[in-house]
């Protein structure tokens, strides 16, 4: 679904360039959260948020709160005193780590179980016919199911805990199924990225200004300008498609699919020639084979100034047959803009190394707003937002992650996108298969998809997820 533009594209672009929009606009700040001081980024209350309905005590809001809101006692700085906070709510990442036992605690499990029983007994799915609301609540229940089922498969906890968790998974599975919609309905969910661009809320150019809320307007509509990247694949007789998946997708356990796009200043030919040069002359293949990761030569070609890379995350929903349906809903956008790529300090950029980074996430508060979706439901996360590292933590990671609450968003970006060589190549793992190599993918330089070619990443995600034990258990539950 798309909406008509009131202004012409040229008029809109001119308006945006004359009045660039700044990050963390005061009017956009969610009143449910603190935005300054030691409590910044945490909730003001444990009360359910009025997201799925204006009444905070609506059953859907209470159920959402039970799976997303939890307390913490963590220091603001390393070795500092702990501070009491309320975390979660309207976030994209599910706050569950390998070492988390919060939802296994009897009182918390009982609260969730009671709400699920009420939902199932009273036909809670009938409280809304809105397809977007149903898809989003299903998404959140699915995240909880996968988390608990993984713990169950790993046999974590005593027999009483495992039995309680197993029964809870059964109720979650049935609730997930009741919220399911026909595939044809899910296919009609809005193209919220297009709505975000058309809203005029985001700047269409970046001008290398890290404070500008820049959202590229043509990522999904101009493959002459933005090229989608696919992994290098060695020729093999066996089916190895499941190996060529993004680490981000694996971190979200296949409930979202991801696509990576790159834009070079001079367009497609410049990017494709760069990849060929990198493959032919920029990589020490012997060292790479020995170490199991790409090793660049000292004179490897650098990314040209002005290079942009975007990682888009899309929602996957389950239809009435419990089949995975690829939707057009963008859940997050991560953007890197290279003012330069030599890695030398540059404090005019928000990563401090010549690169600007920005992360936009889908907010239910905006996506489900009364009167219709507000600017595509997307909101830029402030650069100084305190974040918990959820992605890429190991299976035994302690509760709240290895870094706790001592890291800000831009610092978290630097962990993966600040190279130790004088080139920006190795900071973009998708260009050299680093983003999938630990899945068993062959080392190699990625390539662009031909103009007009469909993306292979959505179908690979479905193949990966449907072979996972958590998905099979989910289908088994609803088939009983």
Give structural notes.
The relative contact order is 0.15. The protein has a 7-stranded antiparallel β-sheet with strand order 8-7-6-5-4-3-11. β5 and β6 form a beta hairpin. The radius of gyration is 22 Å and the shape is globular. 31% of the residues lie in helices and 14% in strands. It has 2 domains: 33-185 and 472-479, no CATH class; 190-465, no CATH class. The longest helix is centred in the first third of the chain and has 23 residues, at 131-153. The chain has helices spanning 9-18, 59-68, 106-121, 131-153, 159-178, 183-186, 192-198, 247-251, 268-281, 285-291, 364-367, 409-417, 457-466, 469-479, and strands spanning 69-75, 82-88, 227-230, 256-263, 308-318, 324-338, 355-362, 378-380, 386-387, 407-408, 447-448. The chain is of the alpha+beta class.
Number of domains: 2
**Number of DSSP strands?**
11
Query: Which stretches of 5+ consecutive residues score pLDDT under 50?
Result: 1-24
Binned, the helix content reads 25-40%
Q: Main beta sheet: strand number and arrangement? A: 7 strands, antiparallel
Strand proportion: 5-15%
Order of neighbouring strands in the sheet with most strands? 8-7-6-5-4-3-11
Quickly give the structural class: alpha+beta
């Amino acid at each position: 679904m798309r909406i008509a533009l009131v202004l012409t594209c040229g008029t809109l672009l001119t308006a945006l360039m004359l009045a660039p929009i700044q990050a963390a606009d005061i009017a956009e700040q969610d009143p449910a959260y603190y935005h300054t001081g030691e409590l910044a980024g945490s909730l003001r209350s444990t009360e359910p948020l009025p997201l799925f309905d204006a009444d905070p005590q609506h059953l859907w809001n209470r159920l959402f709160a039970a799976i997303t809101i939890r307390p913490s006692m963590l220091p603001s700085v390393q070795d500092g005193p702990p501070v009491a906070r309320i975390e979660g709510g309207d976030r994209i990442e599910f706050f569950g780590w390998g070492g988390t036992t919060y939802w296994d605690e009897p009182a918390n499990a009982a609260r969730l179980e009671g709400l699920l029983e009420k939902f199932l007994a009273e036909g809670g799915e009938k409280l809304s016919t809105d397809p977007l609301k149903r898809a989003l609540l299903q998404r959140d229940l699915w995240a909880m199911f996968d988390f608990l089922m993984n713990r169950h498969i790993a046999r974590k906890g005593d027999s009483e805990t495992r039995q309680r968790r197993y029964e809870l998974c059964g109720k979650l599975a049935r609730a997930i199924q009741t919220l399911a919609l026909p595939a044809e309905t899910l296919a009609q969910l809005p193209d919220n990225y297009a709505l975000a661009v058309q809203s005029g809320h985001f700047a269409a150019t970046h001008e290398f200004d890290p404070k500008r809320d820049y959202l590229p307007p043509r990522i999904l509509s101009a493959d002459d300008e933005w090229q989608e990247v696919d992994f290098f694949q060695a020729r093999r007789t066996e089916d190895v498609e499941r190996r060529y998946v993004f680490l981000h997708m694996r971190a979200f356990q296949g409930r979202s699919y991801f696509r990576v796009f790159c834009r070079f200043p001079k367009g497609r030919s410049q990017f494709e020639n760069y990849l060929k040069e990198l493959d032919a002359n920029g990589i020490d293949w012997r060292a790479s084979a020995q170490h199991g990761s790409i090793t660049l030569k000292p004179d490897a070609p650098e990314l040209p100034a002005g290079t942009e890379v975007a990682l888009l995350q899309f929602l996957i929903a389950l239809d009435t047959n419990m089949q995975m349906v690829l939707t057009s809903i963008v859940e997050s956008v991560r953007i890197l803009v290279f003012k330069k790529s030599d890695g030398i300090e540059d404090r005019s950029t928000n990563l401090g190394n010549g690169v600007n980074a920005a992360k936009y996430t889908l907010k239910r508060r905006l996506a489900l707003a009364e009167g219709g979706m507000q600017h595509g439901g997307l909101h830029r996360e402030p650069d100084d937002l305190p974040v918990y590292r959820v992605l890429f933590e190991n299976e035994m990671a302690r509760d709240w992650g290895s870094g706790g609450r001592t890291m800000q968003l831009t610092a978290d970006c630097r962990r993966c996108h600040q190279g130790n060589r004088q080139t920006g190549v190795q900071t973009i793992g998708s260009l050299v298969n680093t983003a999938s190599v630990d899945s068993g993918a062959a080392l190699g330089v990625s390539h662009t998809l031909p103009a007009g070619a469909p993306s292979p990443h959505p179908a690979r995600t479905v193949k990966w997820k449907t072979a996972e034990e958590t998905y099979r258990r989910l289908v088994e539950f609803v088939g009983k």
